[in-house]
Amino acid sequence: MSQTFTDRRWTSADGLSLYARDYAGSAGPAKLPVIAIHGLTRNSADFEGIAPLIAQTGRRLLAIDVRGRGQSDRAPDPMTYQPATYAQDVLALLQQAGIEKAVFMGTSMGGLITMALAAIRSKVIAGAIINDVGPEVAKEGLARIAAYSGQPVDTPTWADAAAYAKRINAVAFPHYTDADWDAFARRIFTVGTEGAPILNYDPDIAVPIRAAGARALVPNLWPMFGKLTKGRPVLLVRGANSDLLSEEIAAKMRKRAPRMDFVEVPDVGHAPMLDEPEARAAIFPFLGELP
Q1: Contact 75/81 with Cβ under 8 angstroms?
Q2: Which of 100, 182, 260, 288 is deepest in the core (most CB within 10 A)?
Q3: pLDDT digit string (tens) for 57-85?
Q4: CB-CB contact of 94 with 103 (8 Å)
Q5: What's the CA gap between 94 and 10, in Å, rounded?
């Protein structure tokens, strides 16, 4: 996929320099932009498959690096690595970019940040695509993610980095080839000072999770979910093999928000990349109904 974005930076309330990939919308009538927000240990590169396709429909798309990830600054205080702070960072981006309202597309933690935004400043959200996460999450999936987040890895070569990516994520993408795992590794690793691949996030992002202990495994975000789904279109995407968004939780969400759109991506776990045919077949009509 051609790199069709420009680099954009903005500043958080506490002075961090934060980064986004800014994909310009193709020519045509102005449409609301899309803000794409990745999961816990990932970065803006996660959207490189779907972002250019959305931009081709005429919507500008900003895929952000949440603080502590990718090209965004690392926070001096690791306790700021929490959804409420991340949501404030997103509001700072909107303000500095002159965006009053946007469509939000959040994968995993990005979906939680979108729910936090609904609680803090609901009016900025015109619609939302929530990817494989809910107002409660399955303990098995969260425990699996917590087990590797922030842990040191030894990856002297890109082959080692690809092997790590596969080890951590094979449960989600059983059909991936070696080439897929190499591409995956190049999204989640960067080159360190020694010239070897290193994970492209601050290990301290795990500090608040460890500090919260067992309480972190059962956050109750149902009130935030209620605010998000009230009076605006929402699309829920679920990986059919997901260990984070269980079938039961997805069913409960659909019962609470009967007008919410829903798609399940077959043969994928946590979380779909959103460029799968089934995901695209739901995302583009959904966006097509929005201003």
Answers
A1: yes
A2: 260
A3: 999 999 999 999 999 999 999 999 999 99
A4: no
A5: 9
Arithmetic mean of pLDDT, 220-245: 96
pLDDT value, residue 55: 97
CA dihedral 205, 210, 213, 215 (to 10 degrees): -10
The predicted-structure confidence for 274-291, as pLDDT tens digits, reads as follows 999 999 999 999 999 999
Question: What pLDDT score does 1 carry?
Answer: 43
